[in-house]
Specification:
- The chain is of the alpha+beta class and about 475 residues long.
- It has 16 helices and 21 strands.
- The longest helix has 18 residues.
- It starts with a helix and ends with a helix.
Length: about 475
């Protein structure tokens, strides 16, 4: 019963198992609900704004029939809200009213909506670009697939209208406190929730099944294909900017699932500003923070428009902490079309690790380009450097231009481990910039492929000039 009411967009709270409180709902929408219930033979009684229902099986198909009252489906009038600043549910299409109402509740003002009427693609038009971006962020959080047309302030929902009703209850589970958070801070809050959830999940090397299952549930909503290979690595891929052309660029995002020691049961995550530590034992930020950055990035990419298709492959490996075992077992077929690998598994802030102990992970130009892209429009944070071993070394051995990026943890593998969320979020922003400036990355890769020892320096100067012109 609760889920069906949420699907139609009604705002209420639970008093007990049979009584619902509609005092926070508008009078207009309460009258609409009364009209719907009066059409049914379901036992119910109103006492003011309190609704008591009898023992009735609320069938969704029958419920939708009752909700399809005469005049329903005229869609939302441009800018129309009633005297209580609440959109009229009776004016919204049957299959989209719950989504509109939840987005309104969470701070996104809408001006037009259509469920497609079974013939067209469902869509919502928003009052401002900020409302549009905010709604996209919230929809990504619950896994509802969509495409954003930011200039038109429109979100197109990539589901049949009968398929997306269940997502409205997931939105209903998001706290109304988010309404008071700006879009910029909302994105940060969502990111922190993702990381904190990952930090609570066990997964010492060789026993990664729980974290693997968790990550797979997240990836199922964010990727086109996903598999677990024979060694236990999670491998997935997704293409953004679909069109008639095949992707000309394939980038891999990589982190590892295992932690060096088991996360202690009952421990607390202690938060002092942006710095998180564990009350006992390891925190697990190596590499739960990297996984969080990658999942967050995939959600961001869903909201971006691409001029040309780009394929993103994801490798969440196992047993990295005991010798890069998972990465070594990844098949050549999965790796063969990857031109660039961005690993998110480095301590500290601002490092673009390009090699270790005399072993290069990439051409110098590739590391410099990533650092320059990361520094566009802000203080100089990123620079290429040498570092320790990681899965990056395995991808480099396959001829892939590879780097390892700082993700904000320090003192890994010890009880003094800490994670700076500011630095982790900066890494997520770096990955976002990479995809916003794919032309620069492609240019660097073309330069590397065509370089000879005599032309390297000239190419580097050309690439630096190209990046400087974009600043």
């Amino acid at each position: 019963m609760d889920a069906l009411l949420v699907e139609q967009g009604f705002i209420f709270s639970q008093v007990d198992s049979s009584t619902l409180d509609f005092r926070n709902e508008s009078e207009l929408n309460v009258e609409f609900l009364k009209k719907v219930l009066n059409k049914s033979n379901w036992r119910h009684e109103w006492q003011g704004r309190l609704l008591t229902v009898g023992d009735t099986f609320w069938n969704e198909k029958v419920w939708l029939t009752h909700c399809a009252v005469g005049g329903r489906g005229r869609t939302e009038m441009c800018g129309y809200f009633d005297e209580e600043n609440s959109v009229s549910l009776e004016m919204l299409d049957l299959y989209i009213s719950g989504l509109v109402r939840q987005l309104n509740r969470l701070g996104c003002k809408t001006i037009m909506s259509c469920d497609g009427e079974g013939e067209r693609i469902p869509n919502i038009v928003f009052a401002t670009e900020n409302d549009t971006e905010r709604a996209a962020l919230l929809m990504a959080e619950v896994g509802l697939e969509y495409r954003v047309k930011l200039a038109r302030k429109t979100i197109v929902i990539l589901k049949e209208r009968e398929e997306f009703l269940g997502f409205f209850s997931l939105l209903n589970g998001l706290s109304e406190k988010l309404n008071a958070i700006s879009t910029e801070h909302l994105e940060r809050a969502v990111f922190e929730n993702v990381v904190e959830e990952l930090l609570e999940i066990p997964g010492v090397s060789g026993y990664e099944s729980v974290i693997r299952n968790h990550v797979m549930k997240k990836l199922a909503k964010l990727t086109d294909e996903m598999t677990v290979d024979d060694y236990g690595n999670v491998l997935a891929e997704v293409t953004f900017g679909r069109g008639s052309r095949e992707p000309s660029l394939t980038i891999m995002l990589n982190g590892h699932l295992d932690v060096v020691d088991e996360i202690e049961v009952g421990r607390e995550i202690l938060k002092c500003g942006p710095v998180w530590t564990s009350s006992t034992g390891i925190l697990g930020a190596d590499d739960r923070a990297g996984i969080g950055v990658i999942l967050h990035t995939l959600k961001q990419l869903q909201r971006m428009e691409f001029r040309a298709p780009v394929k993103v492959k994801i490798a969440f490996t196992v047993e990295e902490e005991v010798g890069l075992c998972g990465a070594k077992s990844v098949s050549s077929e999965f790796l063969e079309d990857i031109q660039a690998a961005l690993v998110v598994d480095r301590r500290g802030r601002g490092d673009v690790v390009t090699g270790t102990r005399g072993i290069g992970f990439c051409d110098e130009l590739f590391g410099e380009m990533l650092a320059l892209i990361g520094n566009l429009g802000e203080e100089k944070r990123w620079e290429s450097t040498l570092g320790g071993s990681s899965d990056t070394r395995i991808w480099a051995q396959q001829g892939i231009q590879s780097v390892n990026l700082s993700v904000g943890y320090q003192n890994e593998h010890t009880s003094r481990e800490e994670l700076n969320l500011d630095d982790a979020f900066a890494t997520a922003n770096l990955l976002k910039k990479v995809f916003l400036h794919l032309d620069l990355l492609k240019s660097a890769l073309r330069g590397i492929r065509g370089a000879t020892p005599n032309t390297n320096e000239r190419l580097r100067r050309t690439q630096r000039k190209a990046v400087s012109s974009a600043v």
